[in-house]
Amino acid sequence: MALTGAMGAGISGLKAHMDALTVVGNNVANVNTWGYKPGRVTFKESIYSTQAAGSDGTDIVGGTNPRQTGYGCSIGTIDLDMSSMNVESTGYGADVAIEGDGFFLVGDKTGVALDNLNSLLLTRVGQFRIDNNGYLTDNYGNIVYGFVTCNVGDDGNPAGNSGLKGDAISTQLVPIRLPLAAKGTETGTGMDGVKAGDAIYPGLTEDATTTENDKVNTYEDTYAGYECITYNSLSIGADGKVVCVNDKTGDPVTIGYIAMATVPNPAGLTHTEGPYYKAMEGAGKMSINTAGGALSGQYLNNIPAGDQTASLDYMLGKGADLLSGFLEQSGTDLATEFANMIVYQRGYQANTRIVTVTDTMLEELVNMKR
């Protein structure tokens, strides 16, 4: 049993070090991937068998220690190094890097149940653009979420009652969308809790009907003044303000503010495909704000009663800033990875010796009958 146990321990070491080398390989492969967070491997001991328990001493003899045999090791954790990394200038105003803690929120255009923000994805890669429907998206086509502007025009207050307080940004977490590029009327569906109102964007009038507790509202939007918005003039400020330019008048137009999310334990996020994470068990409850912290300062205490966003957790304080025209570089440190590769290679090599030596001993045992 002891010989086969030694071989089993060696095999477990081979598997663990192979998995560790896989993590190193993934880190090195993503050395030039924007926003990549490298994995960090820890090992843990495997099970133990006890041949003899420990004993206390007596007046005559001393105590004894327990006699136990271990059976190898396994991967304990593969943690994500979520510390802020270096940034690189791109010169493009719609590229933004997060200076400090926090994540962008992205998802599909259908909206999100505000009591289940885990349906949204978190990312550190702020490589944004405008798609052909006017949505602010990332390079993978996911829609960026934020807080649209309630009062961005030159006319003062919104023309109607949207049920949202404050004169700058709403408290509705929604997909960020620019005004359409041409005059016209658009009919669609909206999220429950958005009341009938006017002038979400300057020059935008909205005729809406809602039924209490309905989950789907119908609306008809007429974009009366923004037929000349140019999307190639998109820029994002340090506070997450999304701005474009009216090509006809040359005036800047504030569309909204990008939402920022934080979790108590960023290393506990679950990595999904690409640069995305989900706040599953282990990460803690997600909290929301803007880069400049406007929600916690001016609007946190003014959320309308019964508003769906009243159930959201908001970050307090200023929060992280955004660096416009920059992207976060990969967190892979090649010197560290190559050093780890050597250590894991030697560990793998040593465990192969355990297997081969045990095999030789088993062969000698079998040959004893000759």
TrEMBL record:
GO biological-process terms attached to the record: bacterial-type flagellum-dependent swarming motility
Localization per Swiss-Prot or TrEMBL: Bacterial flagellum basal body
PROSITE patterns: FLAGELLA_BB_ROD (PS00588)
Record-annotated Flagellar basal body rod protein N-terminal domain positions: 9-37
Record carries keyword Ubl conjugation: no
Keywords: Bacterial flagellum, Cell projection, Cilium, Flagellum
Similarity annotation: Belongs to the flagella basal body rod proteins family.
Protein name as catalogued: Flagellar hook protein FlgE
Species, as recorded: Candidatus Flavonifractor merdigallinarum
Organism ancestry: Bacteria, Bacillati, Bacillota, Clostridia, Eubacteriales
